[in-house]
Amino acid sequence: MQNAPAFRTHETAALPVAGFRHPADLFEALFQSIQGGEKHVRPPLELTPGSPFLPFIEIGYALRACVEDKSRRDYLLQRLLPHRGAIIGTLPASLLPHGMLPRAAPLPGFRPLEQISDAELRAWLVEDGGLIYGELQRFELENYFDAIATLIRPGGVMVDLGSGLGKVVMSAALAFPFQRCIGVELMGYRHALAVRRLDALLALARHGLAALPTPLAPDTPLQLPFGGEASGRHLLDLASRIAFIEADLFKVDVRGASLVFMYSTCFGPLMDAIAGKLAREMQEGALVSTTTYPLNHPAFKLLCQFPAGTVAWTSVMLYQRTGALQALSPAEPSVSYEPDPVEWEERVRQQFAALDSNA
């Protein structure tokens, strides 16, 4: 991809749309309506018998007890040290005040950390990373769309694995002539919020379409925000082109996807497994986009890489699925980044001090 555009470096204040005189006004109003998801309230996980998160809560409680009891912090550090590469940040996010662990008393039978194995602990840390929510700001997403626009062809299916509140899915459906844009999200509350935001988007679209001075006909030529061309059906059929699925990304087949997007900054320990899944399922020529972590698999050719601070705050990579899987060499095992143990422990102790000072 040559002659990359000059990327935006910060968010600019968006002027409210005063009226719907042209389709461009409607596009802008729709884009504005799906911003701000990173500020949503994270509800605590459900602490009830039968909850699918009960094993996660049990181990989280055991870890949090060691954070809150200063006499047990050295033991906590000892247990976390071998798994520090699986932690997003310094201390696991669920152990911090804004984490999603409930504050109710533990259920009878919850084990202390001493009774929890290393394998259980590592699996918990991977799951904790997957619960962290983040999304690209609007200017970063616009940078990304500018960067990939020349590779997007009319038709095709875009799939966002870990779609959160649906911002990327809905933005892509507006920006590009995809036949369908699908979001896959494991967390039920995030899926519900995405569906609610989609309902609001579609209501606004209906209102804006009805307010246009000249009705938008299905065959009316339409200029898309990032240089592509479509017809009036692009907006008239918006409801049929967007879907959200509440599911584990490993249980959703992406065989028909022409672009798989992942805001994968929190997927570090899962990236090898995800790369293998995508290599088995995706068709030759399809695109995959990741953030922060690369796809270390011979089935994917790196088309372009944007360092942190260009497209987004973190690095962004774009790959293409190439070659028959059976003809490729086995993937080389990759090792997640392991922080220096001394520096990591110092950061944890600083975080302990900050938690104590804010208590």
UniProtKB/TrEMBL annotation:
Gene3D superfamilies: Vaccinia Virus protein VP39 (3.40.50.150). InterPro entries: DOT1_dom (IPR025789), FAM173A/B (IPR026170), SAM-dependent_MTases_sf (IPR029063). GO terms for molecular function: histone H3K79 methyltransferase activity. Keywords: Methyltransferase, S-adenosyl-L-methionine, Transferase. Residues 132-201 form the DOT1 domain. One of its GO terms (biological process) is methylation. It holds the Pfam family DOT1. PANTHER family: FI06469P, METHYLTRANSFERASE DOMAIN-CONTAINING PROTEIN. This is Histone methylation protein DOT1-like protein. It comes from Duganella vulcania. The lineage of its organism: Bacteria, Pseudomonadati, Pseudomonadota, Betaproteobacteria, Burkholderiales.
